[in-house]
Amino acid sequence: MRRRIVPALLISLALPLSACVSSNSNGGSSGAAGNTDGEGDVTLNVGDQKGNDEAVLRAAGELKNLPYKIKWSTFTSGPPILEAVSAKAVDIGGVGNTPPVVAAAAKSKIKVVGAKHGTTDGEAIVVKKGSPLKKTADLKGKRVAVAQGSSAHFQLVASLRKAGLSIKDVKVSFLQPADALAAFKGGKVDAWAIWDPYTAQAESQADARVLTTGKGVTNGLNFQVANPTSLDDKKKTKVIKDYLERLRRAQKWVYKHPEAWAKVWGKETGLPYDVALAAVKRTNGTRVYTAVDKPAIASEQEIADTFAKLKLTPRRINFADYVDTRFNGGLPPSSTAPRTFGKGS
């Protein structure tokens, strides 16, 4: 039986999954050693989150006949993964669009080597169904919960900016998802900036409705990030290339088998099947692996500049310095439209 170190998610979904907060609170900085797949004289140490890369590779059959070993370490969020990458504790790990910016600003030793682009419909600011708030501008003076330094934090900033407001125009409560959900249910905050699958869960179980989404204000990108030393190792580089290719094939499998993946994802994370399926069809299953190209770098630079200006990071960075483009070959541009699921699919 495979060992699972991180407990199954409670109804509050204590793990931030793909969006990845950029704060270590409720997370810690160490990973729990999990199982090892494959065989061979090269071992790829992978930092993962529960229900993410290992789960999808296994479900898609991409861990069969593996000519090298993958040793999995499970972390609660993106920032601890990047701490482990920087410390050479793991070779590579998957995170959302904001943790690499924060890690780079903290002078971490990281290189973005892969990207995937999905819809931003699940990146949302939600309010209660009976709330009088009808548009983003109505948030002025209201209490909004968000995970500090997360992709949702940037989405909140960008959405307010689009509505002619600044982050100073709202009363921000920096809360991790579990605490934010409790605050939202208890009426202690007026709105919650969040991402799928929390968005789907809030709609299903917390009487929430979407006030606005990340469409047009966030980039919908997720990344694979590696340690530079691993990339200097020819054997490791060859293995990383293969690993990224397996992830791409697994993502295609998810799109073709959303129901099967939702069952696996739900079991891995503790999500009810209907919530998992809603999140798969709206966000998780729409992702397409793309090149880490100039538009993607420019989009991340905007996040970096925004966070530096708000003093959420200690310094301004040049994001291009933290990118390795050698694995871009043959991949579509980062502007490639996400996949979509037709009605009734």
What do you see in this structure?
This protein has 345 residues and is of the alpha/beta class. The chain folds into two domains: 36-118 and 221-322, D-Maltodextrin-Binding Protein, domain 2, CATH 3.40.190.10; 124-213, Periplasmic binding protein-like II (D-Maltodextrin-Binding Protein, domain 2). It has helices at 53-59, 78-86, 99-105, 151-162, 177-185, 198-205, 228-231, 234-256, 258-269, 273-282, 294-309, and strands at 32-37, 43-49, 69-75, 92-95, 111-117, 124-128, 143-146, 171-174, 191-194, 208-213, 221-226, 288-290. The strands form two sheets. The chain has a seven-stranded mixed β-sheet with strand order 1-3-2-4-11-5-12, sandwiched between helices. α1 packs across α8 (234-256), α6 packs across α10 (273-282) and α9 packs across α10 (273-282). The chain is globular and about 60 Å long. The model is unreliable at 1-29 (pLDDT under 50).
Mean pLDDT: 89
Terminal CA distance reads 34 Å
What is the H-and-E element order?
A: EEHEHEHEEEHEHEHEEHHHHEH
Give the count of structural domains. Answer: 2
* Helical content class: 25-40%
Low-confidence residue ranges: 1-29
- The third-level CATH topology of the largest domain is D-Maltodextrin-Binding Protein, domain 2
| Name of the level-1 CATH class of the largest domain | Alpha Beta
Mind telling me which CATH architecture of the largest domain this is? 3-Layer(aba) Sandwich
Tally of strands: 12
Major beta sheet, strand line-up: 1-3-2-4-11-5-12
State the fourth-level CATH superfamily of the largest domain: Periplasmic binding protein-like II
**SSE class:** alpha/beta
User: How much of the polypeptide forms β-strand, as a percent range?
Assistant: 15-25%
